[in-house]
Design goal:
By secondary structure, the protein is mainly alpha-helical. The protein has a two-stranded antiparallel sheet. Helix 3 packs antiparallel against helix 4, helix 4 runs parallel beside helix 7 and helix 11 crosses helix 12. The relative contact order is 0.14.
Length: 374
């Protein structure tokens, strides 16, 4: 087995792993300037947008909802991915040698897999949460709490760290010779065998892309079926199976929240599909070419752009996010005062909710004015 592995060692120089310093002949010299600039611009936009999302969700108590906690976790995943991995990619395309040491080699590879796993798991849980809200609107009002979603998010991160231990163990800095050129230091995976390497590539593709999208697709088929059924009822007839009813405005709100989650999932699927397809392609066709190099650059740019697309979707599709942005930009709330104002708004919101609760609690359970928390 060892002999077979050594004889197949050329597999690594044609397999374009994101952490590897590639031979200079693979890319035009202009890429050493263009690619770092493109990654830097995308990273700055993504950092700014995700920091703003985190700031809004944390600072405004009215934004402390289950769905927004999932959105907060997605923003944290994107931030960690950008902060750790983007500088490394820029250095890889700028310099011929790996200069950041073995710790950064392992950390960069590990964080890539962990953050992607956490992101797709969070999107899966968001979709399951949407299905639960629509299918069981009454029980979800009491079971969906920020405390429980915090536990779910902690479990997502723990699972993500455990599922992708191999990159932390097997990525190393080694001396490589590229077609009789000078020896260079590269960060690359040194798995026990080529079969192990191929197996891990397929494994990571399945658990970070295929399985989540299959679960999400099934959930959205059920969600669309349920929402379409709700739209067929008149407001006074929208009695659900668990004895709770919904107004037309509540159904519309669920449509909006569901569309936002669906849009985030579709963008994630679109941005990450090319890199997964490319990696699987390289497993079965390990020939090297400049065209493949350009395709890989496009795939990498797309996955970094995904970190910027998510906050844009929240701002465009989420009315609560738009309201907070307006208050931060044009309203009385400034960045230094928004916490104080949000606390006052929370107090007013609690008073309003309390009065509404006393009014609605006296109505029949099937009253068409009863509402469901989203």
């Amino acid at each position: 087995m060892a002999d077979d592995y050594e004889s197949a060692s050329s597999y690594y120089w044609v397999y374009f792993d994101e952490n590897m310093t590639l031979p200079t002949w693979e890319y035009p010299d202009s890429n050493s300037i263009v690619i770092p600039i493109v990654i830097a611009v995308i990273s700055i936009l993504a950092l700014s947008a995700n920091c703003l999302v985190i700031y809004i969700v944390v600072s405004f108590p009215s934004m402390h909802t289950v769905t927004n906690f999932y959105i907060l976790n997605l923003a944290v995943c994107d931030l960690l991915f950008i902060i750790v991995c983007a500088p490394v990619v820029s250095v890889i395309y700028t310099l011929p040698d790996w200069i950041m040491g073995e710790f950064m080699c392992k950390l960069n590879a590990y964080i890539q897999y962990v953050t992607v796993q956490a992101s797709c798991s969070t999107l899966t849980m968001m979709t399951l949460d949407r299905l639960y809200v629509i299918q069981c609107p009454l029980t979800s009002r009491f079971n969906r709490t920020t405390g429980r979603v915090s536990v779910i998010i902690a479990m997502i991160w723990l699972m993500s760290f455990i599922l992708h231990i191999p990159p932390a163990l097997y990525y190393k800095v080694e001396i490589q010779h590229w077609h009789h050129q000078e020896a260079t230091k590269t960060c690359r995976p040194v798995f026990p065998s080529v079969q192990f390497d191929k197996g891990y590539t397929i494994y990571s593709t399945i658990i970070t892309y295929v399985i989540p999208l299959v679960i999400i697709s099934v959930c959205y088929v059920l969600i669309l079926k349920l929402l379409w059924g709700l739209r067929q009822f008149k407001p006074e007839d929208e009695a659900l199976a668990d004895g709770h009813s919904q107004t037309a405005s509540t159904v519309a709100q669920k449509w909006r929240a569901t569309r936002m989650v669906l849009t985030v999932v579709l963008v994630f699927g679109f941005c990450w599909a090319p890199i997964h397809i490319f990696n699987l392609w390289m497993l079965f066709d390990n020939s090297s070419s400049v065209i493949k190099g350009h395709i890989r650059v496009f795939c990498i740019s797309l996955i970094y752009a995904n970190a910027f697309f998510n906050p844009v979707i929240y701002a465009l599709a989420g009315s609560s996010f738009r309201q907070c942005l307006r208050e931060l930009a044009f309203g009385r709330r400034t960045l230094c005062k928004c916490i104080r104002f949000s606390k006052k708004a929370h107090i007013r919101l609690k008073g309003t909710y309390s009065s509404m609760y006393h009014k609605t609690s006296k109505r029949r359970p099937d009253s068409p004015t009863a509402s469901t928390l989203i």
